[in-house]
Design goal:
Number of helices: 4
Structural class: mainly alpha
Order of helices and strands: HHHH
Length: 52
């Protein structure tokens, strides 16, 4: 976990990546939350229950 946080910090220091993240921050954040929600729904088999 500590290595992942450290790697993310070092990657965010790269000027081009930092500019890209700042420009598309809202889209990236929305995509991450939607993907996380879909993953949780698939893991708990909620999707099948919704369409019964």
């Amino acid at each position: 976990m500590v290595l992942m946080v450290g790697a993310a910090y070092k990657i965010s220091e790269v000027r081009r990546i930092n500019t890209f993240i700042e420009k598309y921050e809202q889209w990236i954040e929305s995509l991450v939350f939607v993907a996380l929600g879909l993953y949780i729904m698939l893991e708990n088999e909620t999707v099948g229950w919704l369409f019964c």
